[in-house]
Amino acid sequence: MNSEMISIHETATSVTEALDTRHSIREYLSQPIPEEILKRIFEKALRSPSWKNSQPWKVHIVSGGKKDLLAEALTKAALESTPRPETSWPESYPSDAKKRMFDLGMKIYGVAGIDRKDKEARDKFMLRNFEFFGAPTAVFITSKFDLNFFVGIDLGCFLQSVLLLAREEGLGTCPQAALGAFPDVVRNALTLPQEEKVILGLSIGYPNPDSELNRFHTPRESAEDLIHFY
User: Fold this and answer.
1) Is the torsion defined by CA of 5, 61, 159, 200 positive or negative?
2) Does pTM top 0.85 for this prediction?
């Protein structure tokens, strides 16, 4: 299982390149994203597959002052209360997955210059989720559907489409379950109906090319371990 450092501030010219080079970006330039680029990404992503063409997603794209106010409200909620997501976050994992998760955390903290034992620094780093890591735009994916395994698959297909299309445009992204941690805060800020569940979100923008953290490319298990032919 290897990791490497890869710069992804250039555009991707194929689906293969987008898949090979995409990773979560946690430091962004303040440069705003032109609205036509955001429209192109999310309108194309609507072609994502879903169960019986049910299309269980709604998308809310927040930039500028509205995004800044929402970041303040989410950060305040994170400091003063515990997460209350509308779909349960996983609580247990197989042992091999737990090892991968621990190893990843150690590597990311290392690249970010954070000592694993420094809880204050780790907590501050975690709070960056709610500041959208400085990205100029935040995106929230919501649904009025009853949440189940297959709706989750559909939302995952849509999210992956967005990540790859953003990579094609030279943008970085960070998909974040954390942005579904305080759904009432998001609902109030965006005046969403109560039945519209806030599932997750992502930060999107132009990666800071000088950031070592942005160059960290997360490792993957070998194909031989995970793919079997019969």
Assistant:
1) positive
2) yes
